[in-house]
């Protein structure tokens, strides 16, 4: 199963990947593919954290807007996944991390069997109300870094309620890597998803297309 992890810059995507590897690598055969425009920094972070054997963590340098390689042309990511499967398979779970993008970033179903979207309390309590395909349609929405809420004056319960109203019954998880109960809930969600995937009862869905936008990559 390929699980995509998307969300804006700084929301904690790489930390979530590390957390999932720590929780699940003892029971599942896992690998990770990271995406970034010009760097392999996220892959180096995960390797240095020792969460998986270093050779099971691959970096894709997209050279373009982060959404390009997870939605528009997923071939580089699929090649990385297939190389990992050929070298270390059979694999149970491959985590594919998007480069940081905006609230509309979504994975193509051709790449991700399921996807979670990450926002965080430091981004502001109103982020969940802003919507966008990533927030409203991902299989799981994570509101991350809840331990920081008192320091940024955010009401986590209100943020979860706003997100739940936006998601029409899809799950929302308030997460802190320092909170064992929320970490266990995330790991259990992945386990249950994998059971459904193996049984053929989970059908990959498309949360919706990216909103039209542009980025400047010329350093200006």
UniProtKB/TrEMBL annotation:
Compartments where found: Cytoplasm
InterPro entries: CobW/HypB/UreG_nucleotide-bd, P-loop_NTPase, UreG
The organism's taxonomic lineage, starting at the top: Bacteria, Bacillati, Actinomycetota, Actinomycetes, Kitasatosporales
Annotated Pfam families: cobW (PF02492)
Keyword vocabulary terms for this entry: Chaperone, Cytoplasm, GTP-binding, Nickel insertion, Nucleotide-binding
Subunit relationships: Homodimer. UreD, UreF and UreG form a complex that acts as a GTP-hydrolysis-dependent molecular chaperone, activating the urease apoprotein by helping to assemble the nickel containing metallocenter of UreC. The UreE protein probably delivers the nickel.
Keyword presence, Nucleotide-binding: yes
Record-linked NCBIfam families: ureG (TIGR00101)
Binding site for GTP: 7-14
Protein name: Urease accessory protein UreG
Family assignment from sequence similarity: Belongs to the SIMIBI class G3E GTPase family. UreG subfamily.
Main location (coarse class): cytoplasm
Function, as annotated: Facilitates the functional incorporation of the urease nickel metallocenter. This process requires GTP hydrolysis, probably effectuated by UreG.
Spans annotated as Disordered: 200-220
């Amino acid at each position: 199963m390929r699980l995509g992890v998307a969300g804006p810059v700084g929301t904690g995507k790489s930390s979530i990947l590390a957390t999932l590897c720590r929780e699940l690598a003892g029971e599942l055969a896992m690998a990770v593919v990271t995406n970034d425009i010009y760097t392999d920094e996220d892959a180096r972070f995960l390797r240095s954290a020792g969460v998986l054997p270093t050779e099971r963590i691959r970096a894709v340098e997209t050279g373009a807007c982060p959404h390009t390689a997870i939605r528009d042309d997923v071939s580089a990511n699929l090649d990385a996944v297939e190389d990992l499967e050929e070298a270390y398979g059979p694999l149970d779970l491959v985590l594919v991390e998007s480069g940081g993008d905006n609230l509309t970033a979504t994975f193509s179903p051709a790449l991700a069997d399921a996807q979670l979207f990450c926002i965080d309390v430091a981004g502001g309590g109103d982020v969940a109300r802003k919507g966008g395909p990533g927030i409203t349609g991902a299989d799981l929405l994570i509101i991350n870094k809840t331990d920081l809420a008192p320091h940024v004056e955010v009401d986590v319960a209100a943020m979860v309620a706003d997100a739940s109203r936006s998601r029409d019954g899809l799950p929302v998880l308030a997460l802190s890597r320092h909170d064992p109960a929320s970490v266990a809930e995330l790991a259990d969600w992945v386990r249950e998803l994998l059971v459904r995937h193996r049984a053929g009862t989970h059908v990959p869905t498309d949360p919706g297309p990216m909103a039209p936008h542009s980025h400047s990559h010329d350093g200006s």
